[in-house]
Amino acid sequence: MDSDLLRSFVAFAECGSFNRAADRIGRTPSAFSMQMKRLEDIVGNTLFERDGRNVLLTADGITFVGYARRMLSLQDEAMGKMRGQDSSRPIRIGCPDDYTQKILPVVLRAIRKTHPDAKFFISVNPTILLHRMLDQGELDVSIISRSEKGEEGYFLRHEPGVWVSSPIHKQHLANPLSLVLPAEDCKFHAWAIDAISKADRPFTLFATTRQAASLLHLVRDGLGVAALAAASVTDEFQILESRDGFPPLPAVGVALMLSDASHPLVDRQLAATIQSFVSEYINDDNLTIRATG
Which Pfam families does this UniProt record tie to the protein (predicted)? Predict the structure, then answer.
């Protein structure tokens, strides 16, 4: 089977969009659409379905993407061996600030377990910028946020959103409430404002920032209540719940995405290893991390 068709198909599964997948592989959307029609003709099954304006994988498509990844992984492994690619350079890995404390270390350990001599260059940026860096070949692999039911990349975990205050300053008791939130392109920004508005709680928006660490500094100093991913929060903060008058927040999906022109050590088999590591070593109870040895 034509590996270009498989790579285009997997690009869609990892991007969740015909337009982004077409951009990633350097084709026009119409050419990409023709490729996917040809692939459906070859396999003899419907791989895509429409849900309003969105294009999703069918059950057969979800099944086939697993086989496509395995075929490409074998091809990439073979070609890497034949070409003698340089595996000594650092692996360029991206990660949103929210996940640097508790998820990124587990991902790095998973890679080092498979490749003990691997070195890393870590880029911490918002998901929207990490997508762009992957598409432009500036990263080999990246942890990203996606919608909870999204299909982009290799799923790692569902990440709950939480309200966070300081147990010392107790700013969550103030009226009106002072909020410190992620930037507007982060899902938690809109979710927080929507939830607190529906709860009829008066509030002011004190500050926004793209860095979870900056939000937590503001919370620590009593300047506001934050809404962000649970993975960002350490034990020194107070997580607010319904009994404190704060409605629950939705979860986001956390996934791993690979660049098409990635490091020779980064392949789909490694992505599966990382998935297993995250599932085994990150505990959803208070997001604790089990020692990896």
Answer: HTH_1, LysR_substrate
Which of these, 264, 280, 262, 260, lies nearest to 272 by C-alpha position?
A: 280
The pLDDT value recorded for residue 245 is 93
- C-alpha 207/C-alpha 224 separation (Å) is 8
> What is the C-alpha to C-alpha distance for residues 131 and 143, in angstroms, rounded to an integer?
10
- C-alpha closest to that of 159 among 281, 250, 290: 250
CB atoms within 10 A of CB 167: 9
In the chain, DSSP finds a helix count (H) and a strand count (E) of 9, 13
Q: Cα angle vertex 44, ends 29, 51, to 5°?
A: 50
- The alpha carbon of 25 is separated from its chain's Cα centroid by a whole number of angstroms, namely 20
Query: Quick check: 131 pLDDT over 70?
Result: yes
Q: How far apart are CA 75 and CA 55, in angstroms?
A: 28
Q: Which of 164, 201, 158 is nearest to 182 (CA)?
A: 164
Helices 268-281 and 104-114, packing angle to 10 deg:
130
Q: Residues 6 or more apart from 168 whose CB is under 8 A from it?
A: 222
Question: Which residue matches tokens 């996606």?
Answer: 146
Q: How far apart are CA 291 and CA 240, in angstroms?
A: 28
Overall average pLDDT of the 75-97 stretch: 75
CA torsion through residues 289, 217, 144, 55, sign: positive
Structural domains of the chain, ranges and CATH numbers in brackets: 1-84 (1.10.10.10), 159-251 (3.40.190.10)
Q: How far is CA 191 from CA 196, 197, 226, 265, in A?
A: 9, 10, 12, 38
* Mean pLDDT of the residues in the chain: 87
- Can you give the pLDDT at residue 26? 64
Which tokens in the block code for residue 87? 């595996």
Distance CA(92)–CA(90), nearest Å, equals 6
